[in-house]
Amino acid sequence: TGALSALQRQLEIQESQLRRTKSEKETLQKELRERENQLQAMSAKFCSLREEWKHGEMMATIERENCSLRQTVTKQESKLAEQNQLISDLQSAVSQLQAKVLVNENHIQEQQRAQEAIQSQADLLQHMEQQTKVALQSISSRFERYRSKIIQATFSAAGSKCPQAELTDEEVLEAMQKIINERMEFHQMLKQKGVK
After folding, report:
1. Where would one find coiled-coil regions in this protein (predicted)?
2. Looking at the domain assignment, is residue 64 inside a domain?
3. Which of 86, 112, 165, 187 lies deepest, with the highest CB count within 10 Å?
């Protein structure tokens, strides 16, 4: 954005210089027309005087004036050509700056689109995270209820002592394994006695 602002300021400066140069060109063209009119007037005056007077000194003076005017016109034309070249260079510079501004604007738009895509993905991930947390809480709650039921079933059997403190998973597993082993032993004993 800073580079774009700098380019826009540079573009405004170049356009201002271009307008000033065009104004100078118009002034030079006006002066050139005036000089040409003066040259035509002097030429007409020269012709009139030559026809009327045939005076050598007057002819030389008029000729010197004509020569001076031609030199002035030549200088004005040269300066006008320089102004035209400057205008062309400024127009080329303005075109290049406009192209740079356009490229930077497109780059900024691409960055904005990428940022919007990243933000959208972040929002989606955040939503998925919230859903995962909710699901995890639900699973944790179900697991605790299931664990509580296992503990209740395990220690409600005959001969089991009700735990006085919170049990670890290993202690619950050992108690269940003990009950299972006792039932298997009891089943084996019954089988040996022939009881179905």
Report:
1. 4-45, 73-131
2. no
3. 86
Q: Which residue's structure tokens are 């959208």?
A: 120
Q: Are 166 and 148 in contact (CB under 8 A)?
A: no
Contact 53, 22 (CB under 8 A): no
Report the distance separating Cα 79 and Cα 24, nearest Å.
10
Q: Is residue 168 part of a domain?
A: yes
CB 15 within 8 A of CB 94: yes
Q: Write out pLDDT tens, residues 46-103.
A: 777 767 766 677 777 878 888 998 899 889 889 889 988 988 898 898 899 999 999 9
Distance (Å, whole) CA 154 – CA 163 = 11
Q: Helix 2-52 to helix 56-155 angle, to the nearest 10 degrees?
A: 170
